[in-house]
Amino acid sequence: MNHPGYTVTKSPVTKSHPIQWHNLIRALWIGGLAVYIIHLNTTDSLHYYLAPTMQRLLLCCPVPFLFIAAIMAWHGLFGNSQLHCDCEHPPPSGWVRSSLMYGLIAIPLVLGFLMPDQALGSSMASQKGMSLSYGPPEIRRKEPLPDTAELDIKDLSKKNANVESSVPATKVQFVPPDEYSREFAELAEKLYAESVIKVYPEIFSETLGSIDMFQRQFAGKAISLTGFVYRDKSMDQESHFALGRFLVMCCPADAAPFGVMIHIPNADSFPTDSWVQIDGTIGSAQVNGEDTIEIQASKITPVDQPATPYIYTSADSVKAYGKLQNK
Predict the structure, then answer these.
(1) Please, which domain of life does this record's source organism belong to (predicted)?
(2) Angle at CA 298, nearest 5°, toward 293 and 303?
């Protein structure tokens, strides 16, 4: 019997979706990601992909990932075939769409396990552009530059070295051009006091930045540093190459190649991308019309690629330099 004022409504029918295998695939992917992070950490390969500060954050992820994977695997093995919620994001329907979606997610993880972990080299440096300049140019314009039209690179370095060697060490001053360069000036004073300037990887860019900013004061000083051999078409490959390192702020995607010009008569005998240690003296050159430092190499020693090939910025290079010296 019908009663006025009452309407009969049918309850919505919940569509059944066999989602167990979706949960199992997702559990496998999340668990695989956790295992991959653990694998990178145990093989000491995380530095190929992340800066040290980011590595500590990433290492917090495997345990939560494994927990989520275990919960999803439990639902996949023992859960029912109904949707767990009434949200508007159901799993993909059909084998084709499911395979396409999960395949796109799985490919990066599979490639991560299969492809070797290796550092960036000359190929990427040529695409990004090797930087041979570190500091602002104002500090290097206090006296007129020599007429480079009459001098080659080697002669320019010798002339600057002779000028600086005649100045007593007590009169050498490092005046920062601005407040932001004060740290470079403080580091330069400590570097200048050394008989041989050792460029530590921990403060690689800061050390070369200080030398580049005060290159006239450092002309003729002995130096030792390590990096990979880089060349491009603009270099005289018989006598020059650049010694490069990649500066990483977060990950290789933002890696910036930094280098310093090396002069040695048999430069072409050292293969591109090989790692070498340079011992020599600091000189100067002009690259594309800009002043830059150049190392007159007296000795080049092939070395193995370091365990951590990238370099990173230091929050306090002066303090870091003191700690490195005390080791």
Answers:
(1) Bacteria
(2) 90
Q: What is the DSSP letter of 11?
A: P
The Cα–Cα gap between 224 and 313 comes to: 20
Is 303:276 a contact under the CB 8 Å cutoff?
Answer: yes
Domain covering 125-325 in this structure, CATH number:
2.40.50.140
Q: What is the pLDDT of residues 220-269, one digit of tens each?
A: 999 999 999 999 877 777 788 999 999 998 888 889 998 899 999 888 89
Q: How high is the mean pLDDT of the chain?
A: 80
3-class state of residue 141 by DSSP: coil
DSSP codes joined into one string, 55-107: HHHHTTSHHHHHHHHHHHHHHHHHS-SS-SS--S-PPPPSHHHHHHHHHHHHH
Nearest to 280 by CA among 199, 163, 166: 199
Q: What is the largest CA-CA distance in the chain?
A: 116
Three-state secondary-structure class, residue 128: helix
Q: What is the DSSP letter of 196?
A: E
CA 279 to chain centre: 24
Beta strands in the chain (DSSP E): 196-198, 222-230, 240-247, 256-263, 275-287, 290-302
Token pair in block for residue 117: 């972990």
| Cα 202–Cα 321–Cα 226 angle in degrees, nearest 5 | 45
Residues of the chain with CATH 2.40.50.140: 125-325
Encode pLDDT of 4-17 as tens digits.
554 444 444 344 44
Looking at residue 151, what is its pLDDT?
27
Could you report the per-residue pLDDT of 81-140, keeping only the tens digit for each?
Answer: 555 555 656 666 777 887 888 888 889 899 989 988 888 988 898 888 888 876 443 333
Burial class (CB in 10 A: 0-12, 13-18, 19+), 208: buried
- The answer, yes or no, to whether residue 80 has pLDDT greater than 60, is yes
Residues shown for the chain: 327
